[in-house]
Amino acid sequence: MNVKNNKRRRESQEKIERAFIELLQTREIKDITVSDIIKMTELNRSTFYANYIDIFDLADKTREKLENEFSNLFADYDYFNERSGAHKMFKHI
User: Fold this and answer.
1) How distant, in Å, are the alpha carbons of 9, 13, 29, 33, 70 from that of 54?
2) Does a structural domain hold residue 81?
3) Cα separation values, 47 from 16, 29, 58, 75, Å
4) pLDDT, tens only, 40-79
5) Structural domain tally of the chain?
6) 1, 22, 29, 78: which has the fewest C-beta neighbours closer than 10 Å?
7) CA-CA distance, 54 to 73, in Å (whole number)?
8) Residue 33 structural domain
């Protein structure tokens, strides 16, 4: 069953996102294909398309996820102690 947040689906999404980010280190987004990603992850093409419309949808969802993770670092930010915020930011990077 391919429920929205089941463990197997989350693991597949994480594999796809990691492969995409790795490919972005050496290629432009327009040069990355679904075939490249499924070869790296050893997942089926249908798994990719069950989670993403295309490469640009993957890029948008990955960006949103990374932005949320980064902003969550500062959810409990102590504005009176600026060093703690900088420390969290560099630790995350």
Assistant:
1) 17, 13, 11, 9, 24
2) yes
3) 9, 20, 13, 33
4) 999 999 999 999 999 999 999 999 999 888 888 767 666 5
5) 1
6) 1
7) 29
8) 7-92
